[in-house]
Amino acid sequence: MAAAWILVLGTAVLGLTTAGPVPTSKPNTTWRGCHIGTFKSLSPQEVETFKKAKDALENSLSQINWSCSSRFFPRPWDLRQLQVWERPVALEAELALTLKVLEAVTNEALRDVLDQPLHTLRHIQSQLQACGSAQPTAGPMPRGRLRNWLHRLQKAPKKESPGCLEASVTFNLFRLLTRDLKCVASGHLCV
Using H for helix, E for strand and C for coil, what is the string for 7-58? Predict the structure, then answer.
């Protein structure tokens, strides 16, 4: 009888040691160097600098006669429609395009207004990349909705004029900061 119990206990211990970690329902944002959770909300000063930049960009755009063929940030663009692991990927692509477009603004008056928001966006991007590089690299390849969104963001600079890119990025800026960033920072809690 004792030998049977030892055999059962030994089998159970060996089974548990090879089973791997038990998944949790909490967002995994505790990787070394990953502080994306701090962006669940921006400070009032940061929001105000982005508001000033957005207002200045909109004022600049209103003085230009431009016609855009499409919106590459469609209204139904909602990161909650993606799986949790896909959300940072989409946000990083959205952020990269936003930075590329805003860094290319040539109007000197806008450059001064954009300085602090660009600094904040670069910081967010670096934190997002720190979180992404800390995650396992053997994840699934983008497909479905994520692949479509990434493709849309990737081809936008080739398809749209600089004015249309600037307009789309400007009109999407607060959604990026208040919804998309907050959703990624909230991890599994964003539903």
Answer: HHHHHHHHHHHHHCCCCCCCCCCCCCCCCHHHHCCCCHHHHHHHHHHHHHHH
